[in-house]
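Note on ligand handling. Small-molecule inputs were canonicalized before submission; formal charges were left as drawn, and no protonation-state enumeration was performed. Where a ligand contained multiple stereocentres, the stereochemistry in the source SMILES was retained. For guanosine-5'-triphosphate, this procedure yielded the string shown in the input block below.
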Amino acid sequence: MLQNEDTITAIATPPGEGAISIIRISGNDSFAVADKIFSGKVRIIDAATHTIHYGKIRKGEEIIDDVLVSVFRNPNSFTGEDSIEISTHGNQLICGKIIELLVDSGVRLAEPGEFTKRAFLNGKLDLAQAEAVADIISARGEASLRGARNQLDGILSSKVNFLREMLINTSSLVELELDFAEEDLEFMSLEQIDTNIVKVLDEIEKLLSTYSFGRVLKDGINVALVGKPNVGKSSLLNYMLKEARAIVSEIPGTTRDTIREDFTFDGIYFKIYDTAGIRLTEDSIEKEGVERSRNVIKNADVVVFLNDINEGLDEELHSTLLNLTDDHRIITVLNKIDIFSGEHLKKPVKYISALTGEGIEELLISIKEKAISSQSYSEKTAIVSNIRHYQSLKRAKESLLNARETVKTRLSGEFLSVDLRDAESALGEIIGIVTTDDILNNIFSKFCIGK
Ligand SMILES: Nc1nc2c(ncn2[C@@H]2O[C@H](COP(=O)(O)OP(=O)(O)OP(=O)(O)O)[C@@H](O)[C@H]2O)c(=O)[nH]1
Ligand SMILES: [Mg+2]
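Structure output:
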């Protein structure tokens, strides 16, 4: 068991008032340090693992708080080290005082994500699972929580591991063959090698294709509501939120800034941007608003292109949109059907009324389907939701395509072995078998303190 030198501490609960707060301590000196400031019936150093002890935290004569101390002996703790959790009354002053006492006793303040980083370094979690811990904490919709849970349970990790092992088996035979080059032995035919590579490539391709869904699970869908002034963008936003969030008026140019509001629908997190109506304008404030609208459109996963049905489709604005985003991201919508009595268009457009709400639920469903490419996955499917994993998979794919090329052109086995090893190490990065300080710092610095 890897044990770090420092013993670290942090408040693990969010700041503010609450029923309780929890202070975490992890490292070799956890129990000894706890005994310096805590007095109860049992000394923590003698306490059995997974037991809870009532007592008082004291600073000299002063009682700081009545607390409960939970004891976790290595390796059976989150970090894999000796750890304790002190549950205090939920008051920041109390927590601050206890942290001060701990620091005076030689404990260091933890860096963001340091507890989880230690869990990874001590082999309690692989890297993809450690990342899932952060995703679980930040999950904002049912679906995103399920996705993070799936990753923490190791569904992605075991898939990646399985593919790595297939590659290792193949590359070791290729290497064995190189060792016996003079003897002209063949351990595996080139055809067999190619079949193995193709199998792994297919699986990688499948994983890559889950990314659009995985990203939506994790980050939600960015939706831009765009259209000419007065078509009803703000009315639509308000209807979706079920509150009068944005000002609505019959005067064109009402919304001058971008408004973002979030909500969950059908387990998915929606980030909706109401934008300033796009038109050519001399007004400098409105100009700035239109400029912001353009940026929102560029970054949107789905663009809801709203039109007033009584004025028909705005073809000019449609071509402007095509310069800013892809056609497949756009959903064309005709609004105000409540005051329209003409014929519906033949084109594939959605009809809604932001006033009565007609068609809006269907619109939300289309937005979701567009963002996740209409795919649905079972709970057991490995899903890629993290850009780091996505990039590693793409690198593995590149190397395997090179490997196939080598097989085809019957180049030396040395080239083949290099490509296979590259693919294998790209996969290893996902679960942290291959890693660097930079990768680790980058991942864990984004965690909150105390996790
Ligand atoms: N009858 C009817 N009126 C609507 C509907 N949607 C919006 N309106 C009206 O259309 C006018 C403009 O609505 P807004 O929501 O402010 O339009 P907007 O697109 O946000 O306009 P700007 O912010 O100026 O770009 C208001 O008077 C709304 O009440 C609808 O579905 N039916
Ligand atoms: Mg508006």
